[in-house]
């Protein structure tokens, strides 16, 4: 007998039929003798609908009232699921975050969980009841309802699993696991059986939106076995494991676990800027002041040594504003130089803990791209990641070529 925390996302509870299907699924696990805590999101689209209503009334609603409003979406699904379980003869009780004792700080709309009281849940579980908890919400010391940020139900699930020392936190969603890359771009992408927390964090921050990043961090910190699976079809999904659980000398360990990519960045270059101390901060300072996040940074020193080129990337949506800051603030401040920009770029990244112990991943990556005639504009590396910036028009070609070259393609037999 195991204790599972099972979180179902918005599409999994998007209609009365889907809610009934979740009830059947939960009943199936309980019939096998497992204890189940269910965490639910609001019906898909509901949170956005509520935010829309607020904005029709007041374009600056207070965060406290926002939380009061958006937390209602989850209250609908938990009560309906409890009713659906009752209909199947399964004893179940639904609880809001406040009722179940999910205590957070008071940062409305982005609250952090501080403590979870588990006594009541334990009592229910011992009485053979299914516990159904509203995701995404908690309560602060003063009794105000708080929410954990968009996608926060994932974090509720992992936090409950940690507090209850559950055997596994299972995140049921509309994909059947974490893939080597986006299957919509590369049809040879395959589901990974396992991935480490570290790799998952890199992939998530690079734009694969399977799980809320905070939930993955939480799972890593508290060692919660976390599994992503489909709520629509049966299958093992992908298990996200703590890095230490990975067998260090495993011969099977792949070099690369996944390829992330995004066309959502733009690059800007300052040419011929004086090479003196403080230049980098004079360039990036005004950009940080405007709250624009900079991703990759490359500085080249000219052979003569007194001039440099400085290139960096920002989100595409920040491109125009960044360009303006460079032209209107930074250049006048530096006194010389020239600005160039390109928003038709893509960033492609190889991610894998296997990289740590193997040299030559970068050179192989560059060779594969060269063979495809793909020009590399920028490179950055970390311990388990290599990213390149290329022209956007080459993104798909690069992803497919790298996917094949690093042995990630599923076999043609499997892929029909
Ligand atoms: N309903 C919330 C949202 O849409 C929380 C969640 O779905 O995880 O962001
Ligand atoms: Mg979600």
UniProtKB/TrEMBL annotation:
Pathway in which this enzyme or protein is active: Amino-acid biosynthesis; L-threonine biosynthesis; L-threonine from L-aspartate: step 1/5; Amino-acid biosynthesis; L-methionine biosynthesis via de novo pathway; L-homoserine from L-aspartate: step 1/3; Amino-acid biosynthesis; L-lysine biosynthesis via DAP pathway; (S)-tetrahydrodipicolinate from L-aspartate: step 1/4
Residues given in the record as ATP binding sites: 7-10, 173-174, 179, 184, 209-210
Matches recorded under SUPFAM superfamilies: ACT-like (SSF55021), Carbamate kinase-like (SSF53633)
GO biological process: homoserine biosynthetic process; lysine biosynthetic process via diaminopimelate; threonine biosynthetic process
Domain ACT: 268-353
Coiled-coil region(s): none
Organism: Halomonas chromatireducens
EC code(s) of this entry: 2.7.2.4
UniProt xrefs under PROSITE patterns: ACT (PS51671), ASPARTOKINASE (PS00324)
Protein name: Aspartokinase
Keyword Glycoprotein: no
Catalytic activity: L-aspartate + ATP = 4-phospho-L-aspartate + ADP
Keywords: Amino-acid biosynthesis, ATP-binding, Kinase, Lysine biosynthesis, Nucleotide-binding, Transferase
Highest classification ranks of the organism: Bacteria, Pseudomonadati, Pseudomonadota, Gammaproteobacteria, Oceanospirillales
Top-level taxon: Bacteria
């Amino acid at each position: 007998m195991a204790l599972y925390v099972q979180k179902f996302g918005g599409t999994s509870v998007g209609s009365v039929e889907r809610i009934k299907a979740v009830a059947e699924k939960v009943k199936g696990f309980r019939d096998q003798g497992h204890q189940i805590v269910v965490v639910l999101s609001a019906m898909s689209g509901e949170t956005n609908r509520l935010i829309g209503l607020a904005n029709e009334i007041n374009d600056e609603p207070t965060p406290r009232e926002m939380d009061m409003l958006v937390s209602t979406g989850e209250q609908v699904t938990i009560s309906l699921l409890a009713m659906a379980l009752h209909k199947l003869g399964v004893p179940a009780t639904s609880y809001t975050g406040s009722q179940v004792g999910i205590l957070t700080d008071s940062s409305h709309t982005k609250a952090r969980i501080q403590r979870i009281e588990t006594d009541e849940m334990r009592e229910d579980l011992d009485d053979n009841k299914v516990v159904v908890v509203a995701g995404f919400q908690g309560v602060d010391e003063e009794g105000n309802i708080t929410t954990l940020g968009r996608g926060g139900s994932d974090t509720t699930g992992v936090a409950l699993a940690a507090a209850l020392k559950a055997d596994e936190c299972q995140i049921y969603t509309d994909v059947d696991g974490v893939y080597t890359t986006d299957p919509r771009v590369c049809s040879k992408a395959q589901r990974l059986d396992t991935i480490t927390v570290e790799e998952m964090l890199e992939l998530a921050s690079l734009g694969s939106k399977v799980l809320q990043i905070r939930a993955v961090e939480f799972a890593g910190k508290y060692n919660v076995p976390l599994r992503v699976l489909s709520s629509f079809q049966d299958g093992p999904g992908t298990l996200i494991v703590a890095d230490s659980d990975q067998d260090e000398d495993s011969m099977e360990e792949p070099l690369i676990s996944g390829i992330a990519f995004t066309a959502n960045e733009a690059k800007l270059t300052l040419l011929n800027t004086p090479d003196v101390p403080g230049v980098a901060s004079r360039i990036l300072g005004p950009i940080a002041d405007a709250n624009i996040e900079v991703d990759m940074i490359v500085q080249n020193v000219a052979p003569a040594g007194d001039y440099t080129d400085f290139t960096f990337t920002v989100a595409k949506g920040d491109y125009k504003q960044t360009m303006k800051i460079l032209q209107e603030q930074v250049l006048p401040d530096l006194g010389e130089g020239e600005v160039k920009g390109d928003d038709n770029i893509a960033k492609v990244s190889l991610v894998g803990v296997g990289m740590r112990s193997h040299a030559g991943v970068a050179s192989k990556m560059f060779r594969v791209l060269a063979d495809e005639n793909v020009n590399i504009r920028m490179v950055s590396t970390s311990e388990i990641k290599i990213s390149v910036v290329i022209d956007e028009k080459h993104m798909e070609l690069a992803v497919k070529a790298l996917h094949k070259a690093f042995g990630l393609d599923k076999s043609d037999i499997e892929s029909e």
